[in-house]
From TrEMBL:
Organism annotation: Noviherbaspirillum sedimenti
Miscellaneous section: In the RecBCD complex, RecB has a slow 3'-5' helicase, an exonuclease activity and loads RecA onto ssDNA, RecD has a fast 5'-3' helicase activity, while RecC stimulates the ATPase and processivity of the RecB helicase and contributes to recognition of the Chi site.
Keywords in alphabetical order: ATP-binding, DNA damage, DNA repair, DNA-binding, Exonuclease, Helicase, Hydrolase, Isomerase, Nuclease, Nucleotide-binding
Nucleus is among the record's keywords: no
Quaternary structure annotation from Swiss-Prot or TrEMBL: Heterotrimer of RecB, RecC and RecD. All subunits contribute to DNA-binding.
GO biological process: double-strand break repair via homologous recombination
Record-listed ATP binding positions: 196-203
Molecular functions (GO terms): 5'-3' DNA helicase activity; ATP binding; ATP hydrolysis activity; DNA binding; exodeoxyribonuclease V activity; single-stranded DNA helicase activity
Top EC class, one word: isomerase
Record family assignment: Belongs to the RecD family.
Functional description taken from the UniProt entry: A helicase/nuclease that prepares dsDNA breaks (DSB) for recombinational DNA repair. Binds to DSBs and unwinds DNA via a highly rapid and processive ATP-dependent bidirectional helicase activity. Unwinds dsDNA until it encounters a Chi (crossover hotspot instigator) sequence from the 3' direction. Cuts ssDNA a few nucleotides 3' to the Chi site. The properties and activities of the enzyme are changed at Chi. The Chi-altered holoenzyme produces a long 3'-ssDNA overhang and facilitates RecA-binding to the ssDNA for homologous DNA recombination and repair.
Start and end residues of each RecBCD enzyme subunit RecD N-terminal domain: 16-126
Name of the protein in question: RecBCD enzyme subunit RecD
Any one Gene Ontology cellular component term annotated for this protein: exodeoxyribonuclease V complex
Amino acid sequence: MTQVNALLEGFDNLVEAGLLRRLGAAFARFITSLGPTPAPLALACALLSELEGRGHSCLKLDELAADPCALMGWTREQWDALLDRSGPLPPDAGAWCTALAACEQVWVVGAEEHRQPLVLDCDRLYLRRYWRNETLVARQAASRATRLREVDAARVRQWLDLLFDAGQPGMQADGPDWQKIACAIAVRSSFSIITGGPGTGKTYTVARLLALLFALAEEPERLRIALAAPTGKAAARLKQSIDDALGGLVARVGTALPLAGLAARLPAAGTLHSLLGARPDTRALRHHAGNPLEVDVLIVDEASMVHLEMMAALLDALPPTTMLILLGDKDQLASVEAGAVLGDLCFDAQAGRYTPASAQYVLAASGQITPAAIAGTLAATIAASGDALAQQTVMLRKSRRFGGPIGALATAVNDGDALAAAACLRAREDAALRWLEPARQTDLLGLAIDGRAGAEGGYRAYLALLRQMPPAGDAAAYEAWVKTVLLAFDTFRILCAVREGEWGVAGINQAIEQRLEREGLIRRRGEWYTGRPVMVTRNDHGVGVFNGDIGIVLPDLARADSQRVYFLNGDAVRSVLATRLAAVETAYAMTVHKSQGSEFRHVAMVLPHEAGQVVARELVYTGITRAREFFTLVTPAVAVLEAAVVRKTQRASGLRVLLGELAEKQQPA
Ligand SMILES: Nc1ncnc2c1ncn2[C@@H]1O[C@H](COP(=O)(O)OP(=O)(O)OP(=O)(O)O)[C@@H](O)[C@H]1O
């Protein structure tokens, strides 16, 4: 048997052991079918595919050479078993590059191209599609951020002073008004990022930015604005918040701007999929560089959930003059798909590396002094490292909604301070936080049904409402009742870190259903029982439901013998015949991933026995920040919290390197 065949067999063993996904083994086989394949290439392909499944966009050869076990999360024995089959591997990153560059399946960036499936860019190995997407995002972001518009700074300042509450000019004790700075920065180019934790006023700010754009436009009524988010729910929330904020500004701007009329013309917010013209059964989108979107300003909320492929598609479809504003929390979980684009793009956000020129503009346009400019001695280093993208990124730092214990816990987790996080959870003077540990599943079930001391109200509350169904025939009363049920369900949610096992979504949903039935709170007659909460797991454009939509099964008003699933879309109730929904799952418990873009009064977050590969800081932070008033952590073992909090997810990507290279090219010689 050749070494490569032995290695392929070794991959099958890893698949059996659950260490490698089947696609990884299949991809390595496919590559061997294309031409001569030395063992290092076959191995790199299997690893690359596995890492792609874990959210990485490339395989970093220096990490592979330095510590393959750490990279893959495998034991030394598991790795050595592969080595026995592969024979000696290249000793360092340089040797890996030389070995792979010699293979005909690999395109080395800069060399002649033959549509090879793999790309080697410096010491990063990519699947071609990911390399293309990453370069497109880097180039587009950098070039958009570089092209600055003519802005009348004095006029911007006048408007910002009108739109925001008057503060002291310059810098206040708790720092400058970053919201004003964000608006000033955004209007001067066709790319900007406004990042910040929950409640820091991202939507508050962007509503004022819209008002500013209307005010600066020659014909504001002709400004084509689009609002979008990765999920339907987040999109509806964005529109609602912007409408509320603009409504609150109408009196403030008075006759200076016909804001009420302009706000009324804003379109509904949609998902990025629908904005780009996604079609069933094909990856091809209706909008791309050849058929660009016809929009002047695009605001995208929850940008941390936008994966690499979607971001590339979005930037590709936007004309260079369209103003793109990304809103999101850079510290939240990235999407399940490959890439952590917002996090990568925001790498300078915390430091706020503004050049003196930016600081000068910010002062003129907003009256605010950026801290970097104050530290004048830093100016030279800032100028050297500050690239165009950093100039167009603003981090909001002051949370308006999220002080108190939940805010302190979120900060401790974000800082990787497990001791402080545990102390917050154990301080019992406030009912906002509790930690059930070591918990048994029955503890969780009690919490799910009745809440806990200080935070009463679990699922019993919405299930009790089911018995108050209005009499047949009164459609308005029926809709009002449906809304009450949906809102009551949305006050409490169980969020799980994992899908499988006793502490995963599937196991917990099953246990809750059994318990609710035993207590007579639900009556399961088949799959579509009254009161069953469901989550849509696949977009269905025909039916008009999208992955992540959550609804509740209730009797059809028109036909009591059939069941419909009712969804709340902003303020409106929408329903679909239950049997038309092909892909749904029960949603008493859902994953933290799926909860992004939503908030609940009380969140109970469940971690499994061990942190493993999945349970890391971003996940814990995202779960905590879904809670508005109460947060309960449920863990079968104490140690899992610390293990999760200290582990920061590192997704391999070349985005920062590519942006750095582009920034260097922009530096004056
Ligand atoms: N400068 C401000 N002055 C007064 N209230 C503010 C200010 N900024 C934000 N708020 C209020 O704080 C709350 C949170 O703001 P907002 O919803 O815009 O935050 P967000 O960052 O978009 O939150 P999330 O991450 O949850 O979407 C809102 O009630 C908003 O009206």
